[in-house]
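Hey,
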Amino acid sequence: MNWVLITEFPQELCFSENGMLEMELEGRKFTLAKWAEGYYAFAQKCPHASGRMASGYINAQGQVVCPLHRYAFDMKNGRNTTGEGYFLKTYPVETRPDGIFIGFKPNSFF
């Protein structure tokens, strides 16, 4: 796992009212969400119809909901919780004393 620094200063992140923002690091676009004192990272677009996840919302159960068709996904593991069978790509996030980091798997050519 390659750990990449998102920010040294979490208080400077500019989350929208829905608690999400789109980011790009090392050529990878993703959505960063803040919910219940934790940070979660997942694909920028819904696996169903490519809705921009950052334009959706986080429901009371802590699931991210796509703005197009209201498909809901667990932000921890990407599991589709509304029963359609899709999976949202997720990335591990760690809060450390020196900042917030996201984990990317190294590219594999095999």
